[in-house]
Specification:
The complex is a heterodimer of chains A (360) and B (810).
Chain A (H helix, E strand, L loop, with lengths): L1 H16 L3 H12 L4 H8 L5 H41 L11 H4 L4 H15 L3 E2 L5 E2 L1 H4 L10 H4 L16 E2 L4 H10 L4 E10 L10 E11 L4 H16 L6 E8 L2 E14 L2 E4 L4 E11 L1 H6 L8 E8 H9 L12 H7 L16
Parallel strand pairs in A: 1-4
Antiparallel strand pairs in A: 2-3, 4-5, 5-10, 6-7, 7-8, 7-9, 9-10
Helix pairs in contact in A: 1-2, 1-4, 2-4, 3-4, 6-12
Chain B lengths: L1 E3 H7 E2 L4 H10 L3 E6 L1 H4 L4 E10 L7 E6 L6 E5 L9 E5 L4 E2 L4 E2 L3 E3 L2 E3 L2 E2 L27 H5 L5 E5 L10 H10 L4 E2 L17 E3 L11 E8 L8 H9 L7 H13 L4 E4 L7 E5 L5 E3 L5 E3 L5 E5 L2 E5 L3 E2 L11 E8 L2 H11 L4 H6 L8 H16 L2 E2 L3 E4 L7 E5 L1 H7 L5 H10 L3 E5 L2 E8 L10 H12 L23 H15 L3 E2 L5 E2 L1 H6 L19 E2 L4 H13 L6 E9 L7 E10 L20 H14 L8 E4 L5 E10 L5 E8 L1 H7 L5 E7 L25 E10 L4 H11 L4 E10 L8 E10 L8 H19 L2 E2 L2
Parallel strand pairs in B: 15-18, 30-33
Antiparallel strand pairs in B: 1-13, 2-14, 3-13, 4-5, 4-7, 5-6, 7-12, 8-9, 10-11, 16-24, 16-25, 16-26, 17-24, 18-21, 19-20, 21-22, 22-23, 27-29, 28-29, 31-32, 33-34, 34-38, 35-36, 36-37, 37-38, 39-41, 39-42, 40-41
Helix pairs in contact in B: 1-5, 5-12, 6-7, 7-10, 11-13, 14-17, 19-20
The chains are: A alpha+beta (360), B alpha+beta (810).
Chain lengths: 360, 810
């Protein structure tokens, strides 16, 4: 039996000495493999008498079990150690910077954003969006809109003209989006509810004017639309657009050739520093022009002004963007300076909606 | 249009305060742009006596003055003015005074160790003149302690109205007073103007020398002489009013014409009768005629201008500006007073053409009251005799004063129809009458009236104009906001057109790829337009605002490329910009297109710009913008089944690093690639630059489907398997052709082909490349046997070899 005890201590020592899983496997093969030392002892059992076999068998099998258990424990230990070492080796410096996602750096221009805001508001009110060409005829830009030829009101528009074509017609760049109203009334049967956002041009350039700018106009034509409805729409629009619970507006009689009566609209505000707040304060800020569509305009577009009536309004998209978001100057809107665009632009997934709020 | 409060009160009997008047003016459509109230602005400045002025102990240029400002004890003031001296009278402002020119409120101070309790002021500090040289010096009898504005008579508030072009009647104080009276702010003072006596025949005749069709250019011309006048400075009250509204007094005769212009909106002209040679002829100018006008400039005229001439030549540009030669000066003893009517459009054109802006033009181009033509001449005559003496001739009138007789049939219900405002008929009628309309109720229908328009309201043409008159006087604030009901009581319907949706999606999709949206000018320089296929004569502006903004853009790329360069010049070379906007192919209304384009510069790749520890910094290239444009199409949900990609693009792209996207050869939708070095050189921009441009209108619309149901999803139970192939082909062979050939070999089972390697170099002959494909096979009904797989493999190799000359790499 001393043989067994010696074998056991020898084997367990070898197990304890194995420094990695491969060495441990060698120990296991040497002890428990086909030709292993413990396996060899078990092979001797066949040649023993039943009595011998009974006592020796139990002892040898007990030795085998202890060796197997020791190897198992040692293997688990070595596996853990190996994993720990691997993990240590695999560690990285997680403070290294990652790249910005493209949608973090991409931007939507404030004009596009505001157009989407306008769309969200007016689509809900049942308006559709009408568009027309930038290169317009004198007829649609002026004559049909009741600008008599030679009238000083035409001059106030600082129109960009093209050279006369072979037929003598002189095209121009639309000075307002109103020709889209003409096109809409000519092509559709009332009731009409549209907004017309778009690019407009005037031959004017200084601190507050650029030769190209953006306007949005609204038009309602039916059999009952009156000034009271116009006031309501504009009040609701201003509250929704500027995202304030209330606004105070002042309607001043004014003059536009294509509306009668005509009004300019001021909105009450408070200015402090570079910031403008609406719905409070005692300053007035002009934001739009409006009026009942002139009978001559309706007639010029083939609509009987005694049967149908309606109203229209117009305002500068760039201007309301500046008022809402606080850009101090108009000119940088068109300068494509990435510093300005990154700062004043909007994230690509900031989709204006009435459900989620126009500006998030 | 400017006027003073006292001037207004000449025409309006009112107790209203300045604030009420200002508020009412704006409310009724005569928008007050500014009120300059010197009495209010300068209320703290007082007349003061300098008891003593001593040299400042610590400053050579300063004096220490003891000032009596009427407050009892003398006040000590440090003053830097060279003229500050003992015994003078000047203007003093105590601490707390707002100094307009400096936009500060004065405080107590210590100047070089000496206390100073206020300031002695210069005229410039009060914004009364530009005189900075010293403090104001007042006469010895100026009363100490009295407000300076009271002493100097500066108390008049000046109101400046931003007049809309339709309101010719409000170009005179009288017309403004009429509006205010109608709005309930007092009573209009109407003073009949009696004809002046005609002591002798007018010594100068008038001839309206026009062909019949030009008669409208000068419908009437009234003329009168006053002889024995003494023309000196006009009286102080008149000078004060003229100065208050920014006019420079010249002499009594000229000042009278200016005064009546503003008082009544009636421009006049005066000639020195002694300088007029022969009779006055009103006619079209002759091409090349010159006139030295009253502004001291010589104008070259042509047939478009109307003039008043005599035997000497042109004496006056009708309705715009008089001539220097026959102007009135201190030596004038006999004056000719002209009150005429001119054609508004012709006056506007002449003024614009010659670049002359005068108070006369301002009124004539809006249309003056024809009925006041002769009263205007009479009023001026009375003023001349009153201020300059003399006796007047008979008034002669050439032509005939038009008698406007416009009557509007007006149903009173029109006010409610257009405004929602429900007013008593009598109230509406009263408003119109106060404005000078004659209202006669229709005897057969009390709901209607015949409304005669006064001669001074040529702008009132129809029913809506009368509605405006009533509403503006009533106050638009009284119109109640009324909710506009939806046309249908339902959830709002989708309203965007396909193109509108694509434009919106395009912007969001491109921004999501890290591109920044720019909005650039619709017009670019002619050479840039030409470089990008534009520059047609019909798209060149006749009056561009600048030479580099002269032609409508045929493409968004020139603007974006220039923008990228400007950013690079500022130190931001890795710009990634896009624009979605209009481009122009002609001047027809269907020649405008909606384009989406992007430019990537430097290292502004979709994965990020600039150096990064995770990988090498590489310049933008054709594949970056190819990825942009394809992801844009995907984001817009464009069915790409019919989309073809052809190598090469327009001349501004690198011929070997660009591609064209088309739905068939006749429907090219866009291009992408690196820019041609020559184009960059012409544009004066530097790369690396890659760009794409795609025309959103040209992309086919998806097929309409009856329902929103998606096609049924077929999922196989069987595992897909991949087989790799490496083909050696000529360098010129396109990867797309290899893929297409492989796909054609087995249409049913091949569900994907991926090009996973392209290799040139060791092991591959010169002029050849190796293209490796991973082909995915999806078994349909049963697992494929090795024999079946081998058969497919063989077919693929055979097909690719046949189509491209490829050799399977061993």
């Amino acid at each position: 039996m001393t043989d067994l005890a010696a074998l056991e201590s020898e084997t367990l020592a070898a197990v304890a000495a194995a420094s990695d899983e491969a060495a441990l496997e060698n120990v296991r093969v040497a002890a428990l493999g086909k030709k292993g030392s413990i396996s060899a002892l078990l092979a001797t059992l066949g040649k023993m008498s039943p009595d011998e076999r009974k006592s020796a068998g139990a002892a040898i099998n007990a030795l085998k079990d202890r060796a197997t258990a020791a190897i198992g424990e040692r293997r688990a230990l070595l596996k853990d150690a190996a994993l720990t070492a691997r993990l240590a080796a695999e560690s990285v410096d997680v403070t290294l910077p990652v790249r910005d996602a493209p949608f973090e750096t991409g931007r939507i221009h404030p004009i596009s954003q505001v157009m989407d805001e306008l769309t969200a508001i007016f689509a809900d009110m049942g308006f559709s969006i009408a568009e027309g060409p930038d290169v317009e005829s004198d007829d649609y830009n002026f004559t049909k809109l009741n600008f008599p030829s030679g009238h000083p009101a035409r001059e106030m528009h600082d129109t960009f003209f093209f050279n006369p074509g072979p037929n003598g017609e002189r095209k121009l760049l639309r000075t307002h989006t109103s020709p889209v109203q003409v096109r809409t009334v000519l092509s559709k049967t009332p009731p009409i509810r549209v907004i017309c956002p778009g690019r407009t041009y005037r031959c004017d350039s200084d601190q507050t004017h650029t030769p190209m700018f953006h306007q949005v106009e609204g038009l309602v034509i039916d059999k009952t639309a009156h000034l009271g409805h116009l006031k309501w729409i504009l009040e609701e629009f201003c509250k929704a657009f500027f995202e304030v619970p209330s606004v105070k507006m002042r309607f001043r009689p004014s003059f536009f050739p294509f509306t009668e009566p005509s009004m300019e609209v001021d909105i009450q505000c408070r200015r402090s520093g570079g910031e403008i707040r609406f719905g409070e304060g005692d300053d007035w800020l002009e934001i739009l022009g409006c009026g009942m569509v002139h009978a001559n305009v309706l007639r010029n577009c083939g609509v009987d002004p005694d049967e149908y009536q309606g109203f229209a309004w117009g305002m500068g998209i760039d201007r309301i963007a500046m008022l809402k978001y606080g850009m101090p100057d108009l000119r940088p809107f068109f300068e494509a300076d990435v510093r300005w665009l990154s700062h004043y632009g909007f994230r690509p997934l900031d989709l204006p909606s009435l459900a989620g709020g126009l500006s998030g | 249009m400017k006027f003073t409060l006292s001037w207004l009160k000449d025409h309006l009997d009112t107790t209203a305060s300045l604030a009420e008047i200002v508020e009412t003016l704006t409310k009724i459509g005569l928008e007050v742009e500014a009120v300059d109230d010197p009495a209010e602005k300068l209320k703290d400045f007082v007349v003061a006596y300098v008891i003593d002025a001593k040299q400042h102990p610590n400053a050579d240029r300063l004096r220490v003055c003891m000032v009596d400002a009427g407050t009892g004890a003398p006040v000590q003031v440090v003053c830097g003015a060279p003229n500050a001296r003992t015994g003078m009278k000047s203007v003093f402002s105590p601490p707390g005074t707002y100094i307009p020119s400096k936009k500060i409120t004065l405080g107590k101070g210590v100047i070089r160790g000496v206390e100073s309790n206020g300031m002695l002021c210069s005229a410039a500090e009060l914004e009364l003149s530009n005189d900075h040289d010293g403090i104001i010096e007042l006469p010895e009898d100026a009363p100490v302690g009295v407000r300076y504005t009271d002493y100097a008579g500066l108390g008049e508030p000046v109101i400046d109205i931003n007049l809309t072009p339709n309101r010719a009647d409000a170009t005179g104080v009288h017309g403004i007073a009429r509006d205010l009276a109608a709005a309930g702010l007092g009573k209009l003072k109407e003073r009949p103007i009696k004809p002046a006596q005609g002591a002798f025949p007018c010594p100068v005749g008038i001839k309206l020398d026009f062909v019949a069709e030009d008669a409208h250019l000068a419908p009437a011309f009234a003329l009168r002489a006053v002889r024995g006048v003494r023309n000196g400075p006009s009286p102080e009250w008149m000078q004060k009013r003229l100065k208050a509204i920014g006019l420079r007094p010249i002499n009594a005769l000229v000042d009278i014409t200016n005064y009546v212009t503003f008082d009544r909106g009636r421009p006049l002209h005066v000639f020195d009768a002694k300088k007029v040679n022969g009779q006055l002829v009103v006619r079209r100018a002759r091409a090349g005629e010159d006139v030295l006008a009253l502004d001291g400039k010589t104008y070259r005229l042509d047939e478009a201008n109307v003039v008043i001439a005599d035997d000497n030549g042109v004496e006056s540009i009708a309705g715009v500006m008089g001539g220097e030669h026959s102007g009135c000066d201190e030596n004038t003893t006999e004056v000719l007073i002209e009150s005429a009517l001119w054609d508004p459009i012709n006056i506007a054109r002449t003024g614009r053409g010659l670049g002359i802006n005068t108070d006369a033009r301002y009124r004539f181009e809006r249309g003056v009251d024809p009925a006041f033509c002769i009263p205007g001449a009479e009023l001026a005559t009375h003023l001349v005799i009153e201020l300059c003496g003399g006796e007047s001739s008979e008034l002669i009138v050439a032509g005939a004063v038009p008698q406007p007789n416009k009557t509007i049939e007006f149903p009173w219900s029109e006010v409610k129809r257009l405004t929602g405002l429900d007013l008593e008929t009598s109230k509406m009628a009263a408003t119109l009458e106060k404005l000078g309309f004659l209202v006669a109720t229709d005897p057969a229908d009390s709901g209607r009236a015949h409304v005669r328009v006064p001669s001074w309201r040529a702008d009132v043409e129809g029913k809506a104009d009368l509605v405006e008159e009533i509403v503006r006087i009533e106050g638009v604030d009284n119109v109640a906001s009324t909710p506009l009901q939806r046309l249908e009581a339902s959830v709002p319907k989708a309203i965007l057109t396909l193109l509108q949706k694509r434009v919106r999606l395009a912007r969001r999709a491109l921004a999501s790829r890290g591109l920044i949206e720019a909005v650039t000018w619709s017009f670019i320089s002619k050479d840039r337009a030409e470089l990008f296929g534009g520059g047609k004569p019909e798209l060149a502006l006749a009056n561009p605002i600048a030479a580099d903004l002269s032609d409508m853009r045929p493409s968004l790329l020139p603007g974006l490329l220039a923008s990228a360069q400007r950013n690079a010049d500022r130190g931001f070379g890795d710009a990634a910009l896009f624009e979605v906007g209009q481009i122009f192919r002609g001047d027809g209304e269907n020649d405008q297109r909606m384009s989406a384009a992007a430019v990537r510069r430097g290292t502004a790749k979709p994965t990020g710009a600039g150096r990064h520890w995770s990988g090498r910094e590489t310049p933008v290239d054709v594949f970056d913008v190819k990825a942009d444009v394809l992801s844009l199409l995907a984001a817009m949900g464009v069915p790409t089944g019919g989309l073809q990609l052809v190598s090469g693009g327009p001349a501004w792209f690198h011929p070997g690093r660009s591609g064209t996207l088309q739905f068939g050869p006749k429907n090219i939708v866009g291009h992408f690639g690196e820019l041609h070095p020559k184009a960059l050189e012409t544009l004066d921009v530097a790369g690396p630059l890659a760009a794409f441009e795609i025309i959103l209108d040209e992309i086919p619309a998806p097929k309409a489907k009856p329902t929103k149901v998606k096609p049924k999803l077929e999922l196989s139970e069987l595992m897909p398997l991949d087989r790799d192939f490496a083909f050696v082909v000529d360098q010129s062979i396109k990867a797309a052709d290899i893929v297409k050939a492989a796909q054609a070999a087995e249409r049913n089972l091949i569900t994907g082909i991926n090009v996973f390697d392209v290799y040139q170099g060791v092991g591959i002959p010169d002029g050849k490349k190796s293209v490796a494909l991973a082909v995915t096979l999806q078994p349909r009904e049963k697992t494929l046997t090795d024999i079946e797989i081998d058969a497919i493999t063989t077919k693929i190799v055979a097909e690719v070899t046949k189509k491209t000359g490829a050799i399977l790499r061993g």
